Sequence to fold (140 residues):
Amino acid sequence: MQNLDVPDIVYNLEPDLSVQEFYEILQTSTLAERRPVDDGARLAVMLKEADIILTARDGTKIVGISRAITDYSYCCYLSDLAVDKAYQGQGIGKKLLEKTHDAASHKTSLILLSAPTARSYYPKVGMETIQNGWIMPRKN
Fold:
């Protein structure tokens, strides 16, 4: 991990984030490996149907994203949390988590499925492991 010492990261809700910028942050983080980046139409729907799209920017460059689905009252599912590999290790992911929970309401539980390589990250930022979850996988 490279620490770029960039204190001027700006966080904003960006409900109209472009598919191109979404694609870019998926590519510069490790999420492209597990997202349909070769299907622009599907990425567009992923953005359109999200309730919360929160970005982290260094100037105009997108360096992080949180994308979530929520009822703003009981639960919030964090679909994507991605930070540009060159910006990891600076607290950007933790800040995106906090601001996503703020946007969803602290009445909600923030829930996510972790990428295998990120499992050790989430306890470090205050999240708890749950053992009572199930999944019905995508069929395509």
Observations:
- The helical segments are 19-28, 40-48, 92-104, 121-124.
- The longest helix spans residues 92-104.
